[in-house]
Amino acid sequence: MQSLTALLDAGTLVPACRPWPRAIVSPQQWSVFTAHLVQERFTLLGLWGDEGAVHMALYDEQEGVAGIATCLCPEGHFPSVGQLHAPAIRLERTVHDLFGLKAEASTTAPLDERPWLDHGRWGVRAPLGAATPGPVDGEPYDFLKAEGAHLHQIPVGPVHAGIIEPGHFRFHALGETVVRLEERLGYVHKGIEARMVGALPEKAARLAGRLSGDSTVAASVAFSQAVESALGAEVPARAIFLRALMAELERIANHFGDVGAICNDAAFAMMLAHCGVLREKVLRASHACFGHRLMMDRIKPGGVRADISDEGIAIVRDLVKTARDTFPALVELYRNTPSIQDRTVTTGRVRAALVRKFGAGGFVGRASGRAFDARRNLPYAPYDQLPFEVPVLEEGDVDARLRIRVMEVDESLALITRILDNLPQGPIETELPTAPAGDAEGVALVESFRGDLLAFVRLDGEGRIKRAHLRDASWFQWPLLEAAIEGNIVADFPLCNKSFNCSYSGHDL
Predict the structure, then answer these.
(1) 177 has which bridge partners?
(2) Distance (Å, rounded) from C-alpha 503 to C-alpha 411?
(3) Strand pairing partners for 180?
(4) Is residue 170's pLDDT more than 80?
(5) What angle do CA 88, 93, 97 make, to 5 degrees?
(6) Cβ-contact 508, 212 below 8 angstroms
(7) Residue 197: exposed, middle, or buried by beta-carbon count in 10 A (0-12, 13-18, 19+)?
(8) Residue 108 pLDDT
(9) Do 209 and 190 touch, CB atoms closer than 8 A?
């Protein structure tokens, strides 16, 4: 098996792409990359469409590098990756929905050609491609079948109880035991990538920050890094550290909320209340320091929009102390309550082999033995200067996903202290360089609280967005939720679902 670098070198390298190499490859070479995915020599980081082309981002763990392969589609089709490598299935269906580019079967194995994001209500087909007229009244969706005596179906959603985004879950069950779960998403498709086209980077960054509100910092950092790489911009050191501070505050706010919510779905409301208080303290500290509870629009290409004052630093240090004084007691309460342990331990297991195959990151991956963290595996500033541990467990159940969050809170609190101790002086933004005469491309992978988040950007000669793509960690985690619930009872689905906490909005672009 060849390395990723060697395979990309065999294609036609695109010098405009930075910092990862991108190469245009033939359909035959594209199939070689697929074979490496099947053999788990590479990990799929993303697959997305373009005008007359499809791109595939890959990670070579042995070589420790990432890169992008591009297959041109002059006749509107390309060799299917998903037919042989399941993580690409929904991505290929999305490419067809948005661009009209069709994945072609290369074997006799079945090919899933159902629409994914397109629910037949846009009034247009392939809106980012040929944009031909389409239906506006919706179309029936053919859910996969499960056959057997006494099986019954349970449709849930897309409208749910409480404040939650829309998604449809189709259960096949035998009594209370789930035999198959299939998801249908795409109800909150926002057209972010289309809206970015023609925008200046600063405006497009605001759209990137709305990919998923709970990951606004991570998405803004990824998009900004991609733009900065494309233009060769040097971001001030203080801005880089402030970005990391915001990212870690975002991480612990979400982890506090998730730990409480998981326990609440097992009727342990006390944890929800106390963890909710901690989350609220993080949000209030974020607002006091950066002017927004979620820190939305605080990050832009070239730096950050808000600096932290000495008073703000004192607020964050006090927050760290409060969390360290309070959170361990809550964790012990969880660990020493048999009724909650009975609900979480061994529930919703995801096999390590499946996690590796899907390249699932974040707490979903690390709870099942995959020790991938973009801050360490493909390090970016300032994490390349800051020591931290990546916690990993093997059990792969609800309890393990909760415990990974707990350990990550500890690491993030330590990182926040290191960031504040080493915060450089100086400016917090720089003017972006003038765009080159031709296209300029940039790519970035950052670690959101859910896992790795990918951004790809192409700028035209006027410095405007020509093509942008964002891939949330949820794309490779939603399918694993279907596997996690198999063999469990229907009543455990809310618990499994919350332990994943995948983003509907981040998935639906």
Answers:
(1) 174, 489
(2) 23
(3) 172
(4) yes
(5) 145
(6) no
(7) middle
(8) 77
(9) no
Q: Which two tokens stand for residue 377?
A: 């595996």
Type of residue numbered 450: R
- In single-letter form, the type of residue at position 239 comes to A
Residue 1, pLDDT > 80, answer no
The secondary structure element, H or E, covering residue 272 is helix 269-290
Evaluate whether 67 touches 20 at the Cβ level (below 8 Å).
Answer: yes
CA dist 179 → 150, 477, 489 (Å): 11, 19, 9
Q: What is the pLDDT of residues 368-398, one digit of tens each?
A: 999 999 999 999 999 999 999 999 999 999 9
In angstroms, rounded to a whole number, what is the distance separating the alpha carbons of residues 305 and 224? 12
Residues in the chain: 509
What 3-state class would DSSP assign to 196? helix
pLDDT band at 125 (very low <50, low <70, confident <90, very high): very high
C-alpha to C-alpha distances, 428 to 243, 255, 381, nearest whole angstrom: 10, 28, 15
| Residues 312-321: contacts with CB under 8 Å, at least 24 apart | 312/288, 313/420, 313/423, 315/285, 315/288, 315/289, 316/245, 316/249, 316/285, 316/289, 316/416, 316/420, 317/417, 317/420, 319/281, 319/282, 319/285, 320/413, 320/416, 320/417
User: Which structure tokens are listed for 279?
Assistant: 């989350």
Contact 349, 484 (CB under 8 A): yes
Question: CA 449 → CA 145, 185, 197, 246, 453, distances in Å?
Answer: 34, 21, 27, 12, 10
- Cα–Cα distance for residue pair 438/17, rounded to 1 Å: 12
Spatial strand order in the sheet of 177-184: 151-156, 168-174, 177-184
The alpha-helical segments, DSSP class H, found in 348-429 are 352-358, 362-366, 374-377, 398-421
Cis preceding-peptide flag for 382 (omega within 30 of 0): yes
* Structure-derived torsion over alpha carbons of residues 464, 469, 470, 475, reported in degrees to the nearest 10: 170
In contact, 230 and 442? CB cutoff 8 Å: yes
Strands 17-18 and 440-447: parallel
Q: How far is the C-alpha of 166 from the C-alpha of 202, rounded, in Å?
A: 30
Query: Residue 36: what residue type?
Result: H
Residues 6+ away with beta carbon under 8 Å from 381: 240
Q: Which tokens is 255 given?
A: 């982890």
C-alpha span between 6 and 63 (Å, rounded): 11
Rounded to a whole number of angstroms, the CA Rg of the chain reads 22
Total Cβ atoms within 10 A of residue 495: 21
The three-class DSSP label of residue 433 is coil
pLDDT in tens, 429-487: 999 998 887 899 999 999 999 999 999 999 999 999 999 999 999 999 999 999 999 99
